[in-house]
């Protein structure tokens, strides 16, 4: 909560626009970068066999997603598999 271009720009002593330009130079946006980082973290947690007992909704919330449906949809778009499929693979590896 509260993560924004303005907050990050202030933290790094630059303007919001200059921060946006840095992301644009890398071919992305601040919002897309944050989303990808949250999805990558969720994937790592779901693929970890030691965390098989954790609910997918808890992982989504811990990674900054307030809407589990949105999390499921964007996760599938990013990785080509549902969170439950990644979790099932982790369970198979653990068992």
Overview of the structural elements:
This protein is mostly helical and 95 residues long. 69% of the residues lie in helices and 0% in strands. Helix 1 (5-11) packs across helix 2. The chain is elongated and about 45 Å long. The N and C termini lie far apart (36 Å). The relative contact order is 0.12.
Notable traits:
single chain; mainly alpha; elongated; 95 residues
Layout of helices and strands:
Layout lengths: L4 H7 L4 H10 L4 H18 L8 H7 L5 H12 L3 H12 L1
Helix pairs in contact: 1-2
Q: Low-confidence parts, pLDDT < 50 over ≥5 residues?
A: none
| Shape type | elongated
Q: Look at the helices and sheets and give the structural class.
A: mainly alpha
Mean of the pLDDT scores? 93
Q: What oligomeric state best describes the polypeptide chains here?
A: single chain
Q: What profile does the largest beta sheet have?
A: none
Number of helices: 6
Beta-strand proportion: under 5%
Q: What's the β-strand tally? A: 0
- Give the end-to-end Cα distance, rounded to a whole number of Å: 36 Å
- Rg, Cα atoms, Å: 16 Å
Helix content: 55-70%
Concise synopsis of the structure shown:
This protein has helices at 5-11, 16-25, 30-47, 56-62, 68-79, 83-94. With 95 residues, the protein is an all-alpha fold.
